[in-house]
Design goal:
579 residues, Fructose-1,6-Bisphosphatase, Chain A, domain 1, D-Maltodextrin-Binding Protein, domain 2, Rossmann fold, 8-stranded mixed sheet, 6-stranded antiparallel sheet, 15 helices, 34 strands, elongated, multifunctional enzyme, NADP, metal-binding, magnesium, cytoplasm
Length: 579
């Protein structure tokens, strides 16, 4: 029997066999622990036995299934079969109409058949691990509630045969290219902050949670969903094998959360994260949930502290090291003058295009160098490798002795990205003119231009009046900046990934004027009402503008983020503040 008809036969027999079990109380009993380490319910085991018996009647095969692990069926081995007997077991047991069975099949070559004939079961299991999910040629998923059948054969497209209909329909993924218009399926077991933020920020039109990975992948294949996402590293080979072939044949894109190709070994214990979508929105989803820079860097930008010879020398060593690995570099003019024997490009601080081909930036210095680097990047999505050569270096992630190790990790793609919120907005002058404010990683400060002159502000959050503040100034801090000027002014310490901002009066006149933490999606509006007392708008330590009575500043979360290659634990960094 050919692979496609065999797969259809397996799912049809499972369909007939498990129907009487729906609602039967003993179907829910745990009968053993499966090969993948999870509990096996009676209904799973019965479905798996039906599949094994079906295979035995028609061919010899190596079966990989969540419950049994690896099983050799018959003698003349033709196929490798990946089975998920019941995908959505909980739904099936509770008669929630979203559960399926999934089968994927690959062929064993004639050459390999000869080797297998002399192998023991353990040797066969080890041998099969040399194959990957990309060796599978057929995928079949059946919705056991509706009877709808999804199937695909490599190179021949993907199809849907609806229950009760005689003709199949060719299916393709959607053509949605705007996330705001997209419908997304999520697997949310073990909710992460990333997923919670995604849901809360309403980045897509609608979110659906179904509980059957194979079916959700098929919904993507037919364009009913625009994407299915599981960012946890717990998606199993058996969960996705059938759907993987179908989505690929439907023109979809399937990678891990970092955009890397899925190359799962044919091993029941293999795990991965998963982003499955049409190709138009795939990169955008990788940008939200993963490290889209995990591929080999194309070019490093090197930014060093200009007044510290040690930092400059480390920058030169890093350029030489990257050059020895065939990776290009771009450097600031002061560093280029020191690199006479190496061909490097020059970063022009006045020309943002000079950064356009840079994939990663190395910042060598203290917090000031990090802030200068981010200003140079100017909202471009370029990850920052921050190496401390300053005094405190609270914004830096690595020390000098870790520099080359983290660069090697970045080259290999073995690192994580931490996305930091920035604060942006505009100044609205009383004459009607407006001025955009640069994005701040730490804080935006409104401070008196004249020493010892108290300012008077009106503070609004989301249009609601909060209070009159009479103080030397006022700080609006990001979570990252909560350990900087805000902390010195009496503000709280906030974890960098918390979604919020802090409004902190500087030396307030009233004892009741205390720091306020507001939601990260808030609009903060501050109006200067001190006649004859102008104030300065300072962004991360640099003066941006001067405002006067009647002018107001409107702030909210910036559309662009700062991306840090993750290193030191936040709580370890806090120890720097104790000494």
């Amino acid at each position: 029997m050919d692979m496609l008809n065999l797969a259809k036969k397996i799912v049809d027999n499972i369909d007939k066999g498990v129907k009487p079990l729906i609602g039967w109380e003993k179907s829910d009993e745990i009968v053993k622990i499966g090969a993948d380490g999870t509990p096996t319910k009676r209904i799973d085991l019965i479905a798996e036995n039906i599949a094994s018996n079906t295979i035995e009647k028609h061919c010899g095969a190596i079966l990989i299934s969540e419950e049994i692990g690896v099983s050799v069926i018959g003698h003349d081995l033709e196929y490798i079969i990946i089975l998920d007997p019941i995908d959505g077991t909980y739904n099936a047991l509770k008669d929630i109409p979203i559960y399926s069975t999934s089968v994927a099949i690959g062929r064993i070559s004639e050459e390999l058949k000869k080797k297998l004939s002399n192998m023991q079961k353990k040797e066969i299991a080890k041998f099969i691990k040399n194959h990957t999910i990309n060796d599978l040629e057929v995928g079949v998923v059946k919705n056991l509630y509706t009877g709808d059948l999804y199937y695909a054969k490599k190179g021949e497209g993907a199809y849907l045969l609806k229950s009760g209909e005689k003709e199949e329909k060719r299916i393709t993924v959607s053509s949605i290219n705007n996330l705001k218009d997209a419908s997304i399926g999520l697997f949310v077991y073990g909710l992460s902050n990333n997923i919670l933020d995604f849901i809360k920020d309403r980045k897509v039109r609608r979110i659906r949670l179904f509980g059957s990975i194979a079916l959700e992948m098929c919904y993507v294949a037919r364009g009913a969903l625009d994407a299915f996402i599981n960012i946890n590293e717990n998606t199993r080979l058996c969960d996705i094998a059938g759907g993987y072939v179908i989505v690929k044949e439907a023109g979809g894109e399937i990678t891990d959360k970092n955009g890397k190709e899925l190359n799962l070994r044919l091993d029941v214990n293999e795990r991965t994260s998963l982003i499955c979508s049409n190709k138009l929105i795939h990169k955008k989803l990788v940008g939200i949930f993963g490290n889209k820079w995990a591929i080999k860097p194309t070019k490093f930008g090197i930014i060093t502290r200009r007044d510290k010879e040690r930092a400059i020398k480390l920058g030169i060593k890093i350029v030489n090291y990257l050059n020895s690995k065939g990776i290009k570099c771009a450097v600031e003019p002061h560093l280029k003058r020191r690199l006479t024997n190496i061909d490097v490009e020059e970063i022009n601080p006045k020309d943002p295009k000079s950064l356009s081909s840079i994939s990663h930036v190395v910042s060598i210095g203290g917090d000031g160098t990090v802030l200068r680097t981010l200003k140079l990047i100017d909202g471009n999505e370029i990850p920052l490798i921050s190496i401390n050569m300053g005094t405190v270096g609270f914004l830096t992630e690595f020390d000098e002795k870790e520099a080359f190790k983290i660069i090697d990790d970045v080259i290999k793609g073995e690192y994580e990205i931490e996305k930091r919120t920035r604060l942006g907005g505009k100044i609205k002058f009383k004459n009607g003119k407006e001025l955009k404010i640069s994005g701040a990683l730490n804080e935006i400060v409104l401070i008196t231009k004249n020493p010892a002159k108290m300012l008077h502000f009106e503070v609004f959050v989301n249009g609601d009046f909060v209070e009159d503040v009479r103080a030397d100034g006022i700080i609006i801090s990001t979570p990252t900046g909560s350990t900087a000027y805000s902390l010195s002014a009496g503000g709280p310490i906030i974890e960098p990934l918390v979604d919020g901002f802090v409004i902190v009066p500087i030396c307030p006149f009233k004892l009741s004027s205390r720091p306020i933490v507001v939601n990260g999606n808030s609009e903060i509006r501050i109006k200067l009402v001190s006649p004859g007392k102008p104030a300065l708008v300072v962004v991360d330590g640099d003066v941006e503008a001067k405002i006067d009575v009647g002018d107001e500043i409107i702030l909210k979360k910036s559309d662009s983020y700062a991306y840090f290659v993750k290193g030191s634990n936040f709580y370890n960094k806090l120890k720097k503040l104790y000494y």
